[in-house]
């Protein structure tokens, strides 16, 4: 059976790669402060969110022997 | 981003990950312990905008007294071991396990310290690049090894990290050294796909 999602998956992956190449070019060509502020926003927002929920999620070490992590 | 002698200079304000790792490596440096920062955080430091909560740091082996000095300094700066007490720093590392360090009462973000366990950890410690971030500095693993190692990890996220570093440092990497790591790690096919 053909997986109808495969072409989309491959297209999405290539799109992501192109975005990464474009962002690398942007970082190379622009002042640190310019790309740095954008990266800092992503990093700090993600950490803020992770901290907000950190008490509610299990410690991953408790599941290190689980087959789910094979 | 400026390349001055053997140093890479980044002139941006530190984010929360940067602040954490700079503080922890300051403790290691004060204790005279060699270290290298590797893996995902390095890619974020160089500008990839992606989520990460762990900062991997390989440390040169040290003795019990040094471990006590490091643990005390970390506690004094308001850190704890969310997975195990900092009092167990030496025994845990010596058992080949990582030790996580985070701000007291938090689990993220965290710095994961570990002793070198294989030839690539060793190579990372032996082949570092100094990154100056604002007025502070830290040592990260060589870009060539980071790219090859990331290619060997297999996950899409890691492939994309390798791609990002390869693109960003296209004119700066030592291609002979990169090729050598690629061959040692057996990731020739993945490397070919970067172009």
Rounded to the nearest angstrom, the radius of gyration of chain B is: 17 Å
Q: What percent of residues of chain A adopt helix (DSSP H or I)?
A: 55-70%
Structural class determined from secondary elements of chain A: mainly alpha
The number of helical segments of chain A is: 2
The largest pleated sheet of chain B is described as: 5 strands, mixed
Rough outline of chain A: flat
Terminus-to-terminus distance of chain A: 27 Å
Choose one word for the global shape of chain B. Answer: globular
CA gyration radius of chain A, whole angstroms: 19 Å
Number of strands of chain B: 9
Pattern of helices and strands of chain B: EEHEHEHEHEEHEEHHHH
Q: What string, H for helix and E for strand, traces the elements of chain A in order?
A: HH
Keywords:
heterodimer, A: 70 residues, mainly alpha, 2 helices, B: 195 residues, alpha+beta, 5-stranded mixed β-sheet, 4-stranded mixed β-sheet, 9 strands
Descriptive notes:
The complex is a heterodimer of chains A (70) and B (195). Chain A is an all-alpha fold. In chain A, 66% of the residues lie in helices and 0% in strands. In chain B, strand 6 (99-103) and strand 7 (110-114) form a beta hairpin. In chain B, the strands form two sheets. A five-stranded mixed β-sheet of chain B has the order 3-4-7-6-5, sandwiched between helices. The longest helix of chain B has 15 residues, at 16-30. Chain B is globular, with a radius of gyration of 17 Å. In chain B, 45% of the residues lie in helices and 21% in strands. Chain B has 195 residues and is an alpha+beta fold. Chain A binds chain B through residues 13, 16-17, 20-21, 23-25, 27-28, 31-33, 35-40, 42-44, 46-47, 50-51, 54, 59, 61, and chain B through 1, 10-13, 15-17, 44, 46-53, 82-83, 106-109, 156, 160, 163-164, 167-168.
């Amino acid at each position: 059976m053909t997986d109808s999602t495969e072409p989309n998956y491959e297209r999405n992956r290539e799109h992501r790669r192109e975005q990464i190449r474009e962002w690398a070019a942007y970082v190379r060509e622009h002042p640190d402060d310019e790309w740095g502020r954008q990266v800092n926003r992503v990093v700090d927002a993600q950490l803020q969110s992770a901290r907000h929920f950190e008490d509610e999620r299990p410690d991953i070490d408790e599941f290190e022997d689980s087959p789910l992590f094979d | 981003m400026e390349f001055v002698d053997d140093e890479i200079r980044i002139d941006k304000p530190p984010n929360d990950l940067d602040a954490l790792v700079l503080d922890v490596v300051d403790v290691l440096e004060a204790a005279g312990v060699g270290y290298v920062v590797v893996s995902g955080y390095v890619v974020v430091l160089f500008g990839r905008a992606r989520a990460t909560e762990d900062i991997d740091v390989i440390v040169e082996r040290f003795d019990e007294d040094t471990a006590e000095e490091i643990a005390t300094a970390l506690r004094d700066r308001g850190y704890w071991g969310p997975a195990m007490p900092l009092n167990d720093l030496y025994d845990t590392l010596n058992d080949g396990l990582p030790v996580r360090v985070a701000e007291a009462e938090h689990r993220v973000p965290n710095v994961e310290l570990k002793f070198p366990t294989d030839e690539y950890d060793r190579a990372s410690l032996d082949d570092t690049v100094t990154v100056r971030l604002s007025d502070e500095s830290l040592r990260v693993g060589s870009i060539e090894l980071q790219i090859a190692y990331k290619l060997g990890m297999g996950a899409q996220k890691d492939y994309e990290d390798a791609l990002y570093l390869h693109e960003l440092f296209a004119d700066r990497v030592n291609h002979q050294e990169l090729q050598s790591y690629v061959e040692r790690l057996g990731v020739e096919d993945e490397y070919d796909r970067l172009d």
